[in-house]
Structures are given as structure tokens and as C-alpha cells.
Target: BadM/Rrf2 family transcriptional regulator
Amino acid sequence: MNISTRLAVAIHILTLLEVNKEGKNTSEWIAGSVGTNPVVIRRITSMLGKAGLIEVRPGIAGAKLARPAGEITLLDIYLAVDAVGKDSLFAVHDHPNPSCPVGQNIAGAIIPVFSVAQQAMEDALRGVTLAQISSQIPG
Model:
């Protein structure tokens, strides 16, 4: 399993909101940029809103960042959209042969490594802000 595309779409949405601060950021307009259905955008913006990353007001078209882009990390976004659960980025196959010495012990040998790898990735995401991503978009 790879990381859900929700993470990339959420970063795209938030970058649009940062770059187009003065514009009307409707789900239809955002969907056009992302290349998906507005329903998908509304679902992800709902997750971002619940996490306190964006503000969306019912009955008023558009959304905006709830705090400065420099204060939003990619880890915040990753956690907001439930890209993967804790220690579940990497999975071990379900039914190794218990009669095989490797099958009996493979999970215990690799799960700690997978956990460290996921933590390293999350640490890397923590070190990058939305402002850094947005600054790479030509104006």
C-alpha cells in the first residue's frame, strides 16, 4: 500500500488557498486545478477544516487558510487527512507459514524497522511548511 493520494490533493488545495488568498476559492475552482470532482475536494476540505487548517463558512463560496502557511507543516496536513494510521505505512503480509522459521519470525524482525522508517518520514514532513511549498510555485 502506498500513501493515500489525499495527502497530495490536500497539499495542492492548501497551496492554492495560499497562492490565491484574494480569490474566490470554490470547490469547483479547486477541482479544476486538481483535476478531480468537486465532491472529492469538499470531502478533503472538510477533513482540513476539522483539523483547523482551513476555514470554510456554510453558504459562502470559498475557503481560506485558518493560520499562516509558515505555521502549517506537511505533517499537519498528513495527519489531517488520515493518509495512514500510526505504524501502518508499511504492512506485513497476513499469513506467513508458521512452520517456517522465517514465516514465524519475519514480522518481529521487520515491524520495528518499518516503525522507525515511518517515524523518519513523519519527521521529514514536520520539517517542511506549506509556505516552503507555496514559494516554489511561480507567481
In short: The chain has one domain: 6-134. The chain has a mean pLDDT of 91.
